[in-house]
Specification:
Layout (H helix, E strand, L loop, with lengths): L1 H48 L7 H4 L3 E14 L7 H17 L4 E7 L4 H17 L7 E7 L6 E14 L25 H10 L17 H14 L2
Parallel strand pairs: 2-3
Antiparallel strand pairs: 1-4, 2-4
């Protein structure tokens, strides 16, 4: 009888210890799950609030093509229509740029009214002759009138055309204080601007910035001549 009671007591004590350990284990698992949930929620909120970083300068300051007007102003005094050699050289230099930059229409902007209508018409005829002698077809020339100040003693004839040039947006923009705002993980706002501006200005052919040229065959004869010249020039 005494032994049976002792066994019952031991059984009850063991059952109590088992329940205690099971509850403790459940509480530990619950605490771990709760801690994991809190950690995930905190990191996810940081990810949602983080500004995506700028990858490189191409995405920060992209080079794009933009239409740009190029012009040459020719000044004529009242009653004078004959162009001097300096004007002729300026026109030829402008036409050289036109043939290299554009295949669009070449505009001749004629003032109206003018100080001397007859003199301006003769000057326009001389400009036409220079343009055609430079190899530009007559169909590419377009005469346009613009409103001029009749009170001036100088008439201005403008040669104008439009060309495509690489363009980069304005530099020097600082919308964010990087010293006080450490949540942004990326480049500064002005990153890449000066580099792309210099790059766009130095490009002789703007299309080279956007697409490659056709590959040419190697000129072995010319290469050997260059190598021989370099060897001869060595001390």
């Amino acid at each position: 009888m005494m032994a049976d009671n002792m066994m019952k007591i031991i059984f009850i004590i063991g059952l109590a210890f088992r329940n205690f350990f099971e509850k403790s284990l459940q509480n530990m698992v619950g605490l771990r799950i709760l801690a994991l949930i809190l950690l995930v929620s905190s990191t996810s909120s940081c990810i949602l609030n983080m500004t995506p970083p700028i990858i490189d300068r191409d995405s920060n300051y992209p080079v794009v093509m933009k239409k740009q007007e190029k012009f040459l102003d020719l000044k004529f005094l009242s009653g004078r229509w004959k162009m001097n050699q300096q004007m002729i050289d300026s026109i030829r230099g402008f036409l050289a740029s036109y043939k290299a930059d554009s295949s669009s229409v070449l505009f001749i902007m004629i003032p109206s009214p003018t100080v001397s209508s007859n003199a301006i018409q003769q000057a326009v005829g001389s400009i036409h002759s220079i343009i055609i002698s430079y190899g530009i077809p007559f169909r590419f020339i377009s005469n346009r009138l613009y409103d001029a100040d009749y009170g001036l003693d100088i008439d201005t004839i403008r040669l104008s055309y439009f060309a495509m040039r690489p363009y980069v947006r304005q530099c020097g923009l600082w919308p964010r204080d990087m010293l006080s705002d450490d949540s942004f993980n990326g480049h500064w706002a002005n990153y890449g601007c000066s580099f792309h501006h210099n790059w766009a200005v130095q490009a002789e052919n703007p299309l080279d910035l956007f697409s490659p040229r056709e590959m040419t065959y190697p000129d072995s004869d010319n290469r050997m001549k260059v190598i021989e010249n370099n060897q001869i020039q060595k001390p």
